[in-house]
Amino acid sequence: MKLTNLKGVGEKTEQYFSKLGVNSVEDLLEFYPRDYEQFFEPVSIPLAKEKNFAAISGVVMENPFVNKKGKITIVSAYIADESGQKIKATWFNMPYISSQLKRGTKLVFRGKIGHKYNASSLEQPKVYSPEKYKELLLTLQPIYHLTKGLSNNAVISAMKEACFFAGKEEDFIPAEIAKKYSLCDRKSMIMGLHFPLNKEEYIKARKRAAFEEIFVFLLTLKQLNINNNKQKSPYDIKKSSKTDEFLNNLPFELTNAQKNAFQEIRNDFESGFVMSRLVQGDVGSGKTIIALLAMLDVAYSGYQSALMVPTEVLAVQHYETILELFREQGINLKVSLLTGSMTAAEKKKEYEKIKSGEVSIIVGTHALIQEKVEYNNLAFVITDEQHRFGVKQRESLQNKGSLPHVLVMSATPIPRTLAIILYGDLDISVINELPAERLPIKNCVVGKDYRLRAYKFITDQVKMGHQAYVICPMVEYTEGVDAENVVEYAEKLKTNLPEGISVKYLHGKMKAAEKNEIMDEFSKGNLDVLVSTTVIEVGVNVKNATVMMIEDAQRFGLAALHQLRGRVGRGEHQSYCIMIDTNESENKDERLDVLNKSNDGFYIASEDLKQRGPGDVLGIRQSGDMRFKIADIYNDSALIKDAKEAVDLILDGFVKLDDKEKKLLDEKCKKTSESLLL
Ligand code: ADP
Ligand code: MG
User: Fold this and answer.
1) Handedness of CA 424, 429, 432, 434 (dihedral sign)
2) What are the residues whose beta carbons fall under 8 Å from the beta carbon of 388, sequence distance 6 or more?
3) CA distances from 276 to 302, 310, 466 (A)
């Protein structure tokens, strides 16, 4: 149903909603709040003065004062309550508020408590009648993602209208399943998520929503039958002594975890069955070399391998790393690079080499799965940073060969038991140790005023021969967004660092050739400081970089911050991560504290609680495959197990569905598979 069918929603509002990905009433109902505002009992003025935020129930002592300072109108009033104390409240540019503030009126004032000049005051409090406040008390008021032109209140009123249509369609969760797992119906779920009357209602609604998402996801995966179980492999891939020789000549020894992972891959090759394996290892644990070793065995057995990565920067880097290692060891296997930004002529040349079987290792981005690419005898496909790819893309790569062995590599730290469920039939190798030479990264979370010291620190590191990254959330100056951008920051940084220190910037909107050139310069050590957006977040490997400075760190998701930090500490040098928290409010960002205290991806992931939402606003995707709106792979592990059990009960015939239930569920899964296959 069109949004404009809702009372109060016109074409303008419809357009704003569309920016948020909401294009119908059905979409709107599933546009869940990113957070909730809670209304607590008012506190006495002396107690409020010790807090940063409070509600005070009091009486206006005198009619308010209205002052003008330039263009600003300031309304102020003194409030007294039963404690006998008073507090000053001020409002900027809200002259109309004074009509509500007649002397002697009893009201509830709710807002930030400022502590300036040794006195406490209420800053811009919202004002409620005692009756209205009583209604709100202990409710959870939804807070939605917004876009310019669309206020939270506008979303709320559209949502209230939309809620008339909630639960009108039939429920796709079979009755027996709903009963077995105590799930509420869909209407209660939608109401309970948008307008919970209390916490219990919210918890029930959330449980059903999370269950539903996971259940449908798992069932859809099953139906897609992505990892065809244990088929006979048409390829005869043998351990090669040349691979072993290459391994022995590496400048480092594999960690035990790496050795195990490689051994497991070799066992798969020799098993006679098609491999589908996930290698999971935290950032910097050394997954690339494992992939390369496996590709060597494949090449020496006479077949091709393809390694697909999510960004051009990473593709070029992997390609060059491989070429470099081959040069060092005099290996004459041929390697191809395929990326979207290559010219048609360049691509054509590579296509020919790939088709003829001249090259044995092909590295690239999505360009690897273009129709025009024909492989000669593709026996092995790898996707690096698999969370960045959709199931469909992975499958397309597989389909380029005939039953190739499949390896996916991921740095998303998920507990093993959950990984087994969520990744369906993948076998899993975990690399749970970092190379021994690594020193733990030293972290700090600091405010803006630390910047000059950070620049001094970077200068010192550069003088010692090292390099630094500085990350900003934005590409360029953007109206209405108060966050650092790489273009202006790079300029500013140049003037703040001594002459002779080179600074350049990198972002996703630049031309690929330009990006590659700068990345190349940086990885060769010819550039000292790289100011970048999160384009460098995945996989980039420059061992000599020792400083990661992140501006507006509070704007990033924890997972992204952990990935960014993973760009340093990749060699034997002591490395540092400086997170600048530019949040002015007094509430410190506890999430950053988690990163400050730990370098362990698993620990961070488990602490990675409510922060998926804000990350999405900045376009930072948190966990590709499992793009759940509500469910949280870390906190909902019990629900994941329940949902998995429910799926098995249905597929194994222990729970029988009637025709209607079957049809509804099939339709839902079909829709989900379309979005999964994006
Ligand atoms: P990730 O697991 O994040 O993809 P990489 O594969 O990029 O990590 O490896 C990070 C760096 O560690 C690379 O420079 C790689 O050469 C190096 N490395 C890999 N394994 C070892 C090891 N066992 N000992 C020392 N360095 C290693
Ligand atoms: Mg990597």
Assistant:
1) negative
2) 310, 538, 621, 624
3) 20, 20, 40
Cβ–ligand 1 contact at 254 (below 6 Å):
yes
Which class for 376: exposed (0-12), middle (13-18), buried (19 or more C-beta within 10 A)? Answer: middle
Most ligand 1 atoms within 8 A of CB, residue of 248, 252, 383, 575 to mutate: 252
Taking only the tens place, the pLDDT of each residue in 100-143 is: 999 999 999 999 888 777 788 999 999 999 999 998 887 788 98
Q: Which of these, 496, 539, 545, 547, lies nearest to 523 by C-alpha position? A: 545
Domain with CATH 3.40.50.300 in the chain: 241-431, 442-598
What is the identity of the amino acid at 608?
D
Answer whether residue 612 shows pLDDT above 50: no
pLDDT digits over 19-30, tens only?
Answer: 988 999 999 998
Exposed e or buried b for every residue in 75-112, given b needs 16+ CB within 10 A? bbbbbebeeeeebbbbbeeeeebbeebeeeeebbbbbb
Range with lowest mean pLDDT among 88-97, 438-447, 584-593: 584-593
| Gap between the Cα atoms of 650 and 643, Å rounded | 11
Check: CB of residue 273 under 8 Å from CB of residue 231. Answer: yes
Q: Look at ligand 1, atom 12, and give the residue with the nearest C-alpha.
A: 286
pTM over 0.85: no
Asked if 214 contacts 628 with a C-beta cutoff of 8 angstroms, the reply is: yes
Best CATH choice for the domain 40-137 from the list 3.40.50.360, 3.40.50.150, 3.90.1680.10, 2.40.50.140: 2.40.50.140
The neighbouring-strand residues paired with 471 are 532, 550
Give the integer Cα–Cα distance in Å for 515 and 486: 14
CA 571 / ligand 1 centre spacing (Å): 8
Question: Which of the four pLDDT bands, split at 50, 70 and 90, describes residue 586?
Answer: low
Average pLDDT estimate for 326-352: 95
Q: Is 105 helix (H, G, I), strand (E, B) or coil?
A: coil
Per the model's pLDDT, the better-predicted residue between 168 and 300 turns out to be 300
The CATH class, in words, for 442-598 is: alpha beta
Q: Which CATH architecture has domain 241-431?
A: 3-Layer(aba) Sandwich (3.40)
Residues of the chain with CATH 2.40.50.140: 40-137
Q: Is the CB of 40 under 6 A from ligand 1?
A: no
Cα distance between residue 203 and residue 223, in whole Å: 30
Cα separation, 159 vs 274, whole angstroms: 50
Specify the pairing of strand 65-69 against strand 72-80.
antiparallel
